[in-house]
Write a structure and sequence with these properties.
Length: 322
Protein backbone atom coordinates (compact mmCIF):
# COMPACT_ATOMS: atom_id res chain seq x y z
CA UNK A 1 0.00 0.00 0.00
CA UNK A 2 2.93 2.37 0.53
CA UNK A 3 3.55 2.91 -3.22
CA UNK A 4 -0.18 3.69 -3.68
CA UNK A 5 -0.14 6.26 -0.87
CA UNK A 6 2.99 7.90 -2.28
CA UNK A 7 1.32 8.00 -5.69
CA UNK A 8 -1.74 9.79 -4.28
CA UNK A 9 0.42 12.42 -2.58
CA UNK A 10 2.32 12.86 -5.85
CA UNK A 11 -1.00 13.41 -7.65
CA UNK A 12 -1.89 16.18 -5.17
CA UNK A 13 1.29 18.12 -5.90
CA UNK A 14 1.14 17.35 -9.64
CA UNK A 15 -2.32 18.96 -9.74
CA UNK A 16 -0.74 22.37 -9.16
CA UNK A 17 0.82 22.04 -12.61
CA UNK A 18 -2.56 22.22 -14.37
CA UNK A 19 -3.87 25.00 -12.14
CA UNK A 20 -0.84 27.29 -12.39
CA UNK A 21 -0.24 26.62 -16.09
CA UNK A 22 -3.80 27.65 -16.86
CA UNK A 23 -3.48 30.68 -14.60
CA UNK A 24 -0.27 31.75 -16.36
CA UNK A 25 -1.88 31.36 -19.76
CA UNK A 26 -4.91 33.43 -18.73
CA UNK A 27 -2.48 36.12 -17.55
CA UNK A 28 -0.83 36.22 -20.99
CA UNK A 29 2.27 34.14 -20.26
CA UNK A 30 3.90 31.97 -22.94
CA UNK A 31 3.73 28.19 -22.67
CA UNK A 32 7.42 28.09 -23.61
CA UNK A 33 8.47 29.80 -20.39
CA UNK A 34 5.95 27.87 -18.31
CA UNK A 35 7.67 24.69 -19.47
CA UNK A 36 11.36 25.60 -19.43
CA UNK A 37 11.45 27.75 -16.28
CA UNK A 38 10.14 24.87 -14.19
CA UNK A 39 13.18 22.72 -14.98
CA UNK A 40 15.66 25.57 -14.58
CA UNK A 41 14.27 26.22 -11.09
CA UNK A 42 14.37 22.53 -10.20
CA UNK A 43 18.16 22.28 -10.49
CA UNK A 44 19.23 24.28 -7.39
CA UNK A 45 16.63 22.57 -5.17
CA UNK A 46 17.63 19.10 -6.31
CA UNK A 47 21.33 19.91 -6.10
CA UNK A 48 20.93 20.91 -2.47
CA UNK A 49 19.11 17.68 -1.69
CA UNK A 50 21.59 15.41 -3.48
CA UNK A 51 24.66 17.23 -2.18
CA UNK A 52 23.20 17.22 1.33
CA UNK A 53 22.94 13.43 1.07
CA UNK A 54 26.53 13.30 -0.32
CA UNK A 55 25.36 11.51 -3.45
CA UNK A 56 26.46 13.88 -6.20
CA UNK A 57 29.66 12.07 -7.26
CA UNK A 58 27.93 8.71 -7.91
CA UNK A 59 25.34 10.53 -10.03
CA UNK A 60 27.98 12.33 -12.12
CA UNK A 61 29.74 9.00 -12.62
CA UNK A 62 26.51 7.42 -13.91
CA UNK A 63 25.92 10.36 -16.25
CA UNK A 64 29.39 9.92 -17.76
CA UNK A 65 28.91 6.21 -18.40
CA UNK A 66 25.97 6.66 -20.77
CA UNK A 67 25.47 10.36 -21.63
CA UNK A 68 23.63 9.61 -24.86
CA UNK A 69 21.03 7.38 -23.21
CA UNK A 70 20.58 9.80 -20.33
CA UNK A 71 20.00 12.69 -22.72
CA UNK A 72 17.65 10.77 -25.02
CA UNK A 73 15.35 9.29 -22.39
CA UNK A 74 15.44 12.36 -20.15
CA UNK A 75 14.40 14.60 -23.05
CA UNK A 76 11.58 12.17 -23.77
CA UNK A 77 10.56 11.60 -20.15
CA UNK A 78 10.75 15.26 -19.12
CA UNK A 79 10.81 17.30 -22.35
CA UNK A 80 8.14 15.53 -24.40
CA UNK A 81 6.12 15.15 -21.22
CA UNK A 82 5.97 18.71 -19.90
CA UNK A 83 6.28 20.89 -23.00
CA UNK A 84 3.11 19.41 -24.58
CA UNK A 85 1.21 19.85 -21.30
CA UNK A 86 2.12 23.54 -21.18
CA UNK A 87 1.30 23.96 -24.87
CA UNK A 88 -2.16 22.49 -24.29
CA UNK A 89 -2.87 25.06 -21.57
CA UNK A 90 -3.10 27.67 -24.34
CA UNK A 91 -6.06 25.90 -25.93
CA UNK A 92 -7.94 24.08 -23.17
CA UNK A 93 -8.84 24.66 -19.51
CA UNK A 94 -6.85 22.97 -16.78
CA UNK A 95 -9.61 20.50 -15.88
CA UNK A 96 -9.69 19.10 -19.43
CA UNK A 97 -5.91 18.76 -19.57
CA UNK A 98 -5.87 17.05 -16.16
CA UNK A 99 -8.63 14.69 -17.29
CA UNK A 100 -6.99 13.89 -20.63
CA UNK A 101 -3.67 13.32 -18.87
CA UNK A 102 -5.21 10.32 -17.14
CA UNK A 103 -4.86 8.44 -20.42
CA UNK A 104 -1.36 7.75 -19.04
CA UNK A 105 -3.05 5.06 -16.93
CA UNK A 106 -3.65 3.10 -20.12
CA UNK A 107 -0.51 4.34 -21.89
CA UNK A 108 1.70 3.01 -19.12
CA UNK A 109 0.04 -0.41 -19.26
CA UNK A 110 0.35 -0.60 -23.05
CA UNK A 111 4.10 0.02 -22.79
CA UNK A 112 4.65 -3.16 -20.74
CA UNK A 113 5.76 -5.33 -23.73
CA UNK A 114 8.68 -2.93 -24.33
CA UNK A 115 10.28 -3.93 -21.03
CA UNK A 116 11.47 -7.08 -19.29
CA UNK A 117 10.87 -8.41 -15.78
CA UNK A 118 12.37 -11.14 -13.58
CA UNK A 119 10.18 -14.22 -13.05
CA UNK A 120 10.94 -17.10 -10.67
CA UNK A 121 10.59 -20.60 -12.15
CA UNK A 122 11.49 -24.11 -10.89
CA UNK A 123 14.76 -23.75 -12.81
CA UNK A 124 15.57 -20.41 -11.21
CA UNK A 125 14.90 -16.80 -12.17
CA UNK A 126 14.48 -15.91 -15.83
CA UNK A 127 14.01 -12.62 -17.65
CA UNK A 128 10.82 -12.41 -19.73
CA UNK A 129 9.15 -9.69 -21.74
CA UNK A 130 6.52 -7.79 -19.80
CA UNK A 131 2.84 -8.45 -20.50
CA UNK A 132 -0.03 -6.01 -20.56
CA UNK A 133 -1.78 -6.36 -17.15
CA UNK A 134 -5.30 -6.79 -18.50
CA UNK A 135 -7.00 -7.09 -15.09
CA UNK A 136 -5.37 -3.89 -13.90
CA UNK A 137 -6.12 -2.31 -17.26
CA UNK A 138 -9.83 -3.12 -16.77
CA UNK A 139 -9.75 -1.21 -13.49
CA UNK A 140 -7.99 1.63 -15.26
CA UNK A 141 -10.82 1.74 -17.80
CA UNK A 142 -13.28 2.21 -14.94
CA UNK A 143 -11.21 5.14 -13.74
CA UNK A 144 -11.10 6.53 -17.27
CA UNK A 145 -14.88 6.13 -17.63
CA UNK A 146 -15.32 8.20 -14.48
CA UNK A 147 -13.06 10.89 -15.88
CA UNK A 148 -15.06 11.01 -19.11
CA UNK A 149 -18.27 11.48 -17.13
CA UNK A 150 -16.67 14.26 -15.11
CA UNK A 151 -15.81 16.23 -18.23
CA UNK A 152 -18.62 15.21 -20.60
CA UNK A 153 -20.78 18.31 -20.30
CA UNK A 154 -17.91 20.82 -20.35
CA UNK A 155 -16.12 19.13 -23.25
CA UNK A 156 -19.25 19.56 -25.38
CA UNK A 157 -18.77 23.34 -25.31
CA UNK A 158 -15.20 23.31 -26.71
CA UNK A 159 -14.29 24.06 -30.33
CA UNK A 160 -12.62 21.54 -32.61
CA UNK A 161 -9.37 23.54 -32.41
CA UNK A 162 -9.41 23.42 -28.62
CA UNK A 163 -9.99 19.69 -28.66
CA UNK A 164 -7.23 18.92 -31.19
CA UNK A 165 -4.58 21.31 -29.86
CA UNK A 166 -5.64 20.88 -26.25
CA UNK A 167 -5.93 17.09 -26.23
CA UNK A 168 -3.51 15.58 -28.76
CA UNK A 169 -0.31 16.99 -27.14
CA UNK A 170 -1.46 15.59 -23.79
CA UNK A 171 -1.86 12.12 -25.33
CA UNK A 172 1.74 12.36 -26.61
CA UNK A 173 2.87 13.37 -23.12
CA UNK A 174 0.98 10.46 -21.57
CA UNK A 175 3.23 8.00 -23.43
CA UNK A 176 6.46 10.00 -23.12
CA UNK A 177 6.42 10.28 -19.32
CA UNK A 178 6.15 6.58 -18.36
CA UNK A 179 8.39 5.58 -21.27
CA UNK A 180 11.21 7.92 -20.23
CA UNK A 181 10.76 7.07 -16.54
CA UNK A 182 10.90 3.30 -17.08
CA UNK A 183 13.83 3.47 -19.51
CA UNK A 184 15.81 5.50 -16.99
CA UNK A 185 14.98 2.98 -14.25
CA UNK A 186 16.43 0.25 -16.47
CA UNK A 187 19.55 2.30 -17.23
CA UNK A 188 20.14 3.15 -13.56
CA UNK A 189 19.54 -0.45 -12.49
CA UNK A 190 18.86 0.49 -8.89
CA UNK A 191 22.28 2.14 -8.45
CA UNK A 192 20.80 5.63 -7.86
CA UNK A 193 18.17 6.78 -5.41
CA UNK A 194 15.14 8.76 -6.50
CA UNK A 195 16.73 12.16 -5.76
CA UNK A 196 19.78 11.36 -7.86
CA UNK A 197 17.67 10.07 -10.72
CA UNK A 198 15.40 13.13 -10.85
CA UNK A 199 18.39 15.49 -10.73
CA UNK A 200 20.18 13.44 -13.36
CA UNK A 201 17.21 13.49 -15.71
CA UNK A 202 16.77 17.23 -15.14
CA UNK A 203 20.41 17.92 -16.01
CA UNK A 204 20.35 15.53 -18.97
CA UNK A 205 17.22 17.20 -20.38
CA UNK A 206 18.82 20.69 -20.32
CA UNK A 207 19.61 20.69 -24.08
CA UNK A 208 15.87 20.42 -24.72
CA UNK A 209 15.02 23.29 -22.36
CA UNK A 210 17.84 25.53 -23.58
CA UNK A 211 16.70 25.18 -27.20
CA UNK A 212 13.09 25.84 -26.18
CA UNK A 213 14.16 28.90 -24.15
CA UNK A 214 16.06 30.37 -27.10
CA UNK A 215 12.94 29.89 -29.21
CA UNK A 216 10.84 31.61 -26.55
CA UNK A 217 13.26 34.52 -26.21
CA UNK A 218 13.21 35.12 -29.96
CA UNK A 219 9.46 34.72 -30.48
CA UNK A 220 7.94 35.88 -27.17
CA UNK A 221 10.61 37.87 -25.34
CA UNK A 222 11.62 37.30 -21.72
CA UNK A 223 9.06 36.01 -19.16
CA UNK A 224 7.23 38.35 -16.81
CA UNK A 225 7.99 38.51 -13.09
CA UNK A 226 4.60 36.96 -12.31
CA UNK A 227 5.16 34.02 -14.65
CA UNK A 228 8.65 33.51 -13.27
CA UNK A 229 7.30 33.37 -9.71
CA UNK A 230 4.49 30.97 -10.58
CA UNK A 231 6.90 28.76 -12.53
CA UNK A 232 9.04 28.60 -9.41
CA UNK A 233 6.03 27.40 -7.41
CA UNK A 234 5.34 24.72 -10.02
CA UNK A 235 8.99 23.68 -9.92
CA UNK A 236 8.82 23.12 -6.16
CA UNK A 237 5.39 21.50 -5.97
CA UNK A 238 5.31 19.44 -9.16
CA UNK A 239 8.90 19.31 -10.33
CA UNK A 240 10.54 18.50 -7.01
CA UNK A 241 7.98 17.22 -4.47
CA UNK A 242 5.57 15.42 -6.81
CA UNK A 243 8.22 13.99 -9.12
CA UNK A 244 10.28 12.63 -6.23
CA UNK A 245 7.20 11.10 -4.58
CA UNK A 246 6.09 9.49 -7.85
CA UNK A 247 9.54 8.19 -8.75
CA UNK A 248 9.94 6.82 -5.23
CA UNK A 249 6.63 4.97 -5.65
CA UNK A 250 7.68 3.52 -9.01
CA UNK A 251 11.10 2.54 -7.64
CA UNK A 252 9.39 0.48 -4.92
CA UNK A 253 7.63 -1.64 -7.56
CA UNK A 254 10.39 -1.64 -10.18
CA UNK A 255 10.30 -4.83 -12.27
CA UNK A 256 6.63 -5.65 -11.55
CA UNK A 257 4.46 -4.31 -14.37
CA UNK A 258 1.17 -4.97 -12.58
CA UNK A 259 2.15 -3.00 -9.49
CA UNK A 260 3.71 -0.32 -11.66
CA UNK A 261 0.41 0.09 -13.48
CA UNK A 262 -1.34 0.42 -10.10
CA UNK A 263 0.99 3.22 -9.02
CA UNK A 264 0.47 5.04 -12.31
CA UNK A 265 -3.30 4.66 -11.84
CA UNK A 266 -3.13 6.77 -8.68
CA UNK A 267 -2.48 9.77 -10.90
CA UNK A 268 -6.21 9.81 -11.66
CA UNK A 269 -6.50 11.71 -8.39
CA UNK A 270 -4.99 14.70 -10.15
CA UNK A 271 -8.41 15.37 -11.70
CA UNK A 272 -10.08 15.68 -8.32
CA UNK A 273 -7.30 17.81 -6.88
CA UNK A 274 -7.16 20.03 -9.99
CA UNK A 275 -10.92 20.52 -9.91
CA UNK A 276 -10.86 21.54 -6.24
CA UNK A 277 -7.96 23.90 -6.93
CA UNK A 278 -9.66 25.54 -9.91
CA UNK A 279 -12.90 26.03 -7.99
CA UNK A 280 -10.98 27.62 -5.14
CA UNK A 281 -8.36 29.67 -7.01
CA UNK A 282 -9.82 30.30 -10.47
CA UNK A 283 -13.55 30.44 -9.57
CA UNK A 284 -14.47 27.45 -11.72
CA UNK A 285 -18.09 26.29 -11.41
CA UNK A 286 -18.87 23.34 -9.17
CA UNK A 287 -19.45 20.02 -10.98
CA UNK A 288 -22.94 18.69 -11.65
CA UNK A 289 -24.42 15.36 -10.54
CA UNK A 290 -22.96 13.48 -13.52
CA UNK A 291 -19.49 14.79 -12.70
CA UNK A 292 -19.84 13.71 -9.08
CA UNK A 293 -20.78 10.23 -10.32
CA UNK A 294 -17.60 10.27 -12.36
CA UNK A 295 -15.57 11.09 -9.27
CA UNK A 296 -17.08 8.11 -7.47
CA UNK A 297 -16.09 5.87 -10.39
CA UNK A 298 -12.55 7.22 -10.21
CA UNK A 299 -12.31 6.46 -6.50
CA UNK A 300 -13.96 3.05 -6.91
CA UNK A 301 -11.67 2.13 -9.79
CA UNK A 302 -8.63 3.03 -7.72
CA UNK A 303 -9.80 0.88 -4.80
CA UNK A 304 -10.41 -2.11 -7.10
CA UNK A 305 -7.08 -1.57 -8.83
CA UNK A 306 -5.28 -1.53 -5.48
CA UNK A 307 -7.21 -4.63 -4.29
CA UNK A 308 -6.29 -6.69 -7.35
CA UNK A 309 -2.64 -5.70 -7.03
CA UNK A 310 -2.57 -6.45 -3.29
CA UNK A 311 -4.22 -9.82 -3.87
CA UNK A 312 -1.30 -10.93 -6.03
CA UNK A 313 1.34 -9.36 -3.81
CA UNK A 314 2.79 -12.62 -2.34
CA UNK A 315 3.51 -14.07 -5.78
CA UNK A 316 4.90 -10.76 -7.06
CA UNK A 317 7.13 -10.40 -4.01
CA UNK A 318 8.74 -13.77 -4.69
CA UNK A 319 9.47 -12.71 -8.25
CA UNK A 320 11.16 -9.47 -7.16
CA UNK A 321 13.29 -11.03 -4.46
CA UNK A 322 14.69 -13.66 -6.78
Amino acid sequence: MRPIILGIFAAFFFAFTFIFNRAMDLAGGSWVWSASLRYFFMIPFLLLIVMGRKNLKPLLKELKTAPGKWTLWSCIGFGLFYAPLCFSASYAPGWLIAATWQITIISGSLLAPLFYEKVMTINGPIIVRGKIPFKGLAMSLIILMGIVLMQLEQAGTLSVTAIVLGVMPVIIASFAYPLGNRKMMDICGGRLDVFQRVLGMTLASMPFWLILSIYGLVTEGPPSIGQTFQSGLVAISSGVIATILFFQATDLVRGNMQKLAAVEATQAMEVLFALIGEVWLLNTSLPNAVSWLGMLLVMGGMVLHSYITHKKAPLSASKESA
